[in-house]
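Closing statement on the iron/sulfur cluster sub-project.
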Amino acid sequence: MSSNEIKTVEGTGIPLVLDDIDTDRIIPARFLRCVTFEGLGDHLFEDDRAQDADHPFNQPQYRNASILITGRNFGCGSSREHAPQSLMRWGIRAIVAESHAEIFFGNCASLGIVAATADRNDLETLAALVTQNPDCRLTVDLESLCVTAGGQSVPVRIPDSARTALITGQWDYLSRLLSAQGAVTAHAATIPYLNDFPD
Amino acid sequence: MSDTRNLFNKVWDLHSVRTLPDGQTQLFIGLHLIHEVTSPQAFEILRERGLQVAFPQRTFATVDHVIPTADQSRPFQDELAEQMMSAIERNCREFGITLLNLDDRRQGIVHVVGPEQGLTQPGMTIVCGDSHTSTHGAFGSIAIGIGTSNVAQVLATQTMFLNRPAVRRVVVNGQLSPGVFAKDVILHIIRKLGVQGGVGYAYEYAGTTFDAMSMEERMTVCNMSIEGGARCGYINPDETTVDYLRGRPFAPQGDSFDRAAAWWLSLASSDDAEFDDEVEFDAADIEPTVTWGITPAQSVGISEKLPHVSDFPSEEQTLVREALEFMGLQEGAPIAGTKIDVAFIGSCTNSRISDLRQAADVVRGHRVADGVRAIVVPGSQQVREQAMNEGLHEVFEAAGFEWRGAGCSMCLAMNPDRLQGREVCASSSNRNFKGRQGSPVGRTLLMSPAMVAAAAVQGHVTDIREFALAPV
Ligand code: SF4
């Protein structure tokens, strides 16, 4: 499906270069009391924002940002997909971090959110650029693996599997899994605990 | 020639349906556990696409996160929680999945009931839309937490795509000193390796310290693998594992059990198994450990003082400063003596019968300090029943603890149990993140259940080794 292809993400950025931002901070647990993901964008970083008027997600100049610049181990903690969902529903399409927590990364992959990594000093450069000029357009380019902004370019990394899936529009993993259902049923017949532990 | 694959790789290979050109494995999932919080949207995806659950008999549901632990009458006072309950009830009914509901004596926290019912077994691949799924690795299974899109994928296909992680053997040898528990071992490991030290790895916990542990202690260790950044953690199955499973409702029975046990034991990593990395600790270096910050790695031994900001590399100092400020603690101050307002004994880390026994031994004959709110929340209805048969609830109640129904409770405060304002909570749970226990500015000190019990009685963080020796 070509409409799913994600080769680049373009837009303005929002800087939040802190480490170990956990999913409880991204979306506090009380907002998990829901049966749909709708409206979660409104509660993104709610408690952090309430305690810090200067939180980037409180600042109007970043309201239309689609690229988050952040630190190490972003999205650690709980497996709640509500975290990337709330970021996505707020408007974030790409997260460039020093590193991402693994479950969080997997959740992003399933949602078509670009989760890329960059060196710390490059992140600081991007954050400084965005802070000085919030209207600056950034481009996260998955083909050339860089972020360009204001005439500068910094390299980014993304695991091959996620990169290929995004570029070719195959991040709808459910369809890909379903295509092998025959093999799955056959495979189940080889697993000892599903077959009364044959000798 | 002997098989030099470690357990992780043996189990992975067994479940690999196919490998994609980009290196991802489509992995068959042997056991899928679901709960009310991360599943409703997944079932919606199935409905939208007109899909069925592929292996409903390999899928089990329970309710734990949002349920109240005091008044459990339906409908719940919290409308949103009630909606989530109705959703999982309807979804399980429509898709043919067994639900261990509130009126079922088998209900409890998903990571407590899986093992308790014998659903969790060695050699399985186990997933659940919950990061502490790593708990089930205690049996020698690959057990990982997943997100809601993955839950939908596993419901619809019983498989998901994963990249094979590297395997690090985390060795701890030696005997734990009195007053030092499994919780301290894992807090110590996370402190030493960092909250992201395990990224890219599955952890095999090995060594005489783990060999000597009961299954419940092993679950406590594996439970917190995720807090160290590892995708999962496991311990090789041995006779302790086999003994635990014998006779459990969903474990194989009769001759099947003997065949199963032989297979389980054959999966263990052999002495010459290969690992991508190895680290080693000495049990003698581990003391009762308490967190002082906002990540599970920010901890110290009870006899130590809080670190100084300048002890950390410059790039970590911002986070350390933020943590001290949020916690209202001083660098260089002792952790012992830190005043607490709330004591919470519960969560999938430490709410099993052995945890409750340890805590009860500490509080027996004592009173909860004035001004401290203390609650005990058993991990499952069966744990609760067992504890009551042993009279533990009377010990707790006599000391001034509240005795509750089974659930996640104040571990993440999605139900009415939560901190108020800046309260400080001594907690046997697994996360001390900002706001984790329900108040955005509430503060959490993680420690073993025995240490929580001692803190409850003293009103401040206390060295269990001194407390337990003191005359009643
Ligand atoms: S007890 Fe806490 S960590 Fe465990 S499943 Fe419940 S909320 Fe998650």
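Chain B touches chain A through 82 residues (CB under 8 Å). With this model delivered, the sub-project is considered complete and its resources will be redirected to Aim 3.
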